[in-house]
């Protein structure tokens, strides 16, 4: 009887070692599962090209436009400082400092039309 | 501002967009790819800009541009004169898909999938229930609507993502919902994603009608706390669906400087309709729904102020609510006052407010703050300056008044809502600046 117990124990030990041989690093393999994807694919925006650039800024009219993000005082003086820089460093550049008519969320087609008719380039911003 | 630059570029005006360095990375990345479609040339200004003295702005202009390291004005000149690259000349006729999102994810272990969901920012970083096909199919039994039905195309913050009934069921599983929750979650999804901003925006969800009891929602003691499965799961669901439908990822599309802890659960409650004082209508009935309708209402705000202690007869609740509301911005005249049923009863019986509307009217007429304090809030200035500049009253007048003049910023009593909630344990309340939208009929989604 004693011998029979020993044989059974050896058999169990062998079986256990044979099973763990299939699991790397001695860790029992976790089953793989398939789940559904919560993500929703995004669509790309329609691409549009930039307009051609200027050869030089010298002698050109540049509009500086504050969209009033953060209010009328938000970043207006950054554009004032740019205007001052042009006057000091590129005096042939004419600058027009403007604000959009409402706020950052509003379009201002009348201003864009004026810039198109009277300006050569624009700097638009700022925040935040 | 990229759309303003785009408008000018389409008129053939070479334009450079100018913004804080925190905004530019979003504008030239996500916004360009999914919303604007034009490779606008940006020049970044060091952050922060607003509130800085003029001397700082001068130093910014005469210093290096943060992205290129070149002098700021040289960067401007380059942006306006450097010839276009081939990439900047690309034109496409229709919006292509940015990526393929297979219906099923590749098979993996539960541990790896939990990590994948976190890595893709699809969770609130608490463990989720993995949405197996079987679980999602079971969830879909909670509604008569087909799995492929389109609820809406989500365009904020760009990307035109299709939100379907099946996607809602997937998120319902992830949040730990039961099939019976589906009609409410589908109705709620019509309001997804929740509002977000660079400011600390938060949201609230108020449920009215029979659905609240059907789902076992808590309208009583601890309604706003972590003591009820339905309140917890519904709020969590709104966070999860908002993050994926809105493709909200930290520092990519989600930019709240401090964030808001209320975004974990969106202050999800049911109104305690059983303990409304006589004459005080439930929120959904105020909106024109029938008492037997089930309705979910969402609101957006920032702030949540507790009364702390019990109501004192010497200084009744409506007066302290008025005082605490002075700390709110008054954005859109929006406020939601959450009052315990005991406070509602006192307001009616002792203070004479026979309806919620009477209390809203009184608050509208009595909450005041100084002009300087009102315009001193950046959200107010950014959003309401337009009305002042257009000459619309009272904003035009408020703009001209001296800083110490008192104004009544909650000038629309219809935007001040009162919701009764709580367990009648203490005479307490919350003043918040949530502006509630129109409720959504849950019964349409059964």
Description:
By secondary structure, chain A is α/β, with parallel strands linked by helices. Chain A has a domain at 61-125. Helices cover 34% and strands 15% of the residues of chain A. Chain A has helices at 2-20, 76-89, 109-118; strands spanning 32-33, 61-66, 94-99, 121-125. Chain A has a three-stranded parallel beta sheet with strand order 3-2-4, sandwiched between helices. In chain A, strand 2 (61-66), helix 2 and strand 3 (94-99) form a beta-alpha-beta unit. The longest helix of chain A is centred in the N-terminal third of the chain and has 19 residues, at 2-20. Chain A is elongated, with a radius of gyration of 36 Å. The termini of chain A are far apart. Mean pLDDT of chain A is 82; it is low at 1-23. The radius of gyration of chain B is 25 Å and the shape is globular. Chain B has 446 residues and is of the alpha+beta class. In chain B, strand 1 (15-20), helix 2 (21-36) and strand 2 form a beta-alpha-beta unit. In chain B, the strands form five sheets. In chain B, strands 6, 7, 8, 15 and 16 form a five-stranded mixed beta sheet that branches. Chain B has a four-stranded mixed beta sheet with strand order 9-14-10-13. In chain B, helix 8 (182-189) runs parallel beside helix 10 (229-245). Chain B has two domains: 2-89, no CATH class; 116-368 and 408-445, no CATH class.
Q: Tell me the major beta sheet of chain B.
A: 5 strands, mixed
Distinct helical segment count of chain A: 3
Structural class of chain A: alpha/beta
User: Runs of chain A with pLDDT <50, length 5+?
Assistant: 1-23
Strand content of chain A: 5-15%
Oligomer: heterodimer
Instruction: Specify Rg of chain B, calculated over alpha carbons.
Output: 25 Å
Approximately how much helix is present in the residues of chain A?
Answer: 25-40%
List low-pLDDT spans of chain B: none
What gross morphology of chain B would you assign? globular
Sketch the major β-sheet of chain A.
Answer: 3 strands, parallel
What's the count of strands of chain A? 4
Classify the beta-strand content of chain B into a percent band.
5-15%
Distance between the termini of chain A: 87 Å
Q: Greatest chain-chain interface? A: A-B, 73 and 111 residues
Mean pLDDT of chain B: 95
Number of helices of chain B: 17
Rg calculated over all Cα atoms of chain A: 36 Å
């Amino acid at each position: 009887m004693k011998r029979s117990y020993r044989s059974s124990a050896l058999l169990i030990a062998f079986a256990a070692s044979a099973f763990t041989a299939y699991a790397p690093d001695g860790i029992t393999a976790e089953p793989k599962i398939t789940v559904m994807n919560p993500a929703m694919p995004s669509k790309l925006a329609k691409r549009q090209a930039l307009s051609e650039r200027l050869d030089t800024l010298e002698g050109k009219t540049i509009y500086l436009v504050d969209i009033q993000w953060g209010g009328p005082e938000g970043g207006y003086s950054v554009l004032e400082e740019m205007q001052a820089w042009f006057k000091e460093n590129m005096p042939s550049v004419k600058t027009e400092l403007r604000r959009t008519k409402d706020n950052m969320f509003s379009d201002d087609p009348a201003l864009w039309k004026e810039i198109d008719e009277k300006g050569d380039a624009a700097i638009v911003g700022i925040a935040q | 501002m990229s759309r303003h630059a785009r408008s000018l570029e389409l008129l053939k005006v070479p334009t450079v967009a100018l913004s804080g360095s925190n905004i530019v990375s979003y504008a030239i990345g996500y916004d360009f790819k999914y919303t604007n479609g034009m490779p606008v040339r940006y020049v970044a200004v060091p952050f922060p800009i607003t509130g800085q003295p003029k001397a700082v702005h001068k130093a910014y202009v005469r210093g290096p541009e943060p992205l290129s390291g070149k002098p700021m004005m040289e960067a401007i000149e380059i942006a306006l004169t450097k010839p276009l690259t081939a990439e900047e000349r690309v034109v496409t006729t229709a919006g292509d898909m940015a990526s393929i999102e297979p219906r099923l994810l590749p098979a993996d272990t539960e541990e790896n999938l939990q990590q994948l969901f976190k890595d893709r920012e699809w969770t609130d970083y608490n463990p989720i229930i993995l949405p197996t096909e079987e679980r999602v199919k079971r969830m879909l039994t909670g509604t008569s609507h087909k799995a492929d039905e389109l609820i809406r195309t989500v365009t904020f913050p760009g990307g035109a993502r299709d939100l379907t009934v099946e996607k809602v069921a997937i998120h319902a599983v992830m949040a730990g919902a039961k099939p019976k929750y589906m009609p409410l979650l589908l109705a709620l999804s019509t309001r997804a994603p929740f509002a977000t901003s660079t400011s600390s925006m938060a949201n609230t969800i108020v449920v009215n009608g029979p659905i609240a009891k059907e789902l076992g929602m808590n309208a009583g003691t601890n309604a706003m706390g972590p003591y009820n499965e339905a309140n917890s799961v519904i709020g969590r669901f709104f966070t999860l669906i908002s993050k994926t439908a809105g493709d909200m990822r930290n520092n990519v599309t989600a930019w709240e400087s401090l964030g808001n802890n209320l975004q974990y659960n969106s202050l999800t409650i049911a109104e305690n309709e059983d303990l409304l004082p006589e004459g005080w209508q439930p929120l959904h009935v105020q909106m024109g729904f029938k008492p037997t309708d089930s309705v979910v209402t969402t609101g957006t705000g920032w702030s949540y102020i507790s009364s702390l202690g019990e109501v004192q007869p010497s200084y009744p609740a409506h007066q302290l609510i008025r005082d605490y509301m002075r700390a709110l911005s008054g954005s859109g005249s929006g406020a939601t006052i959450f009052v315990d049923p005991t406070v509602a009863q006192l307001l009616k019986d002792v203070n004479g407010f026979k309806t919620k509307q009477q209390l809203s009217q009184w608050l509208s007429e009595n909450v005041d703050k100084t002009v300087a304090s009102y315009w001193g809030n950046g959200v107010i200035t950014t959003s309401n300056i337009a009305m002042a500049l257009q000459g619309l009253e009272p904003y035009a007048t408020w703009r001209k008044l001296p800083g110490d003049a008192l104004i009544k910023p909650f000038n629309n009593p219809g935007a001040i809502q009162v919701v009764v909630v709580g367990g009648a344990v203490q005479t307490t309340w919350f003043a918040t600046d949530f502006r509630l939208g129109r409720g959504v009929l849950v019964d349409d989604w059964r």
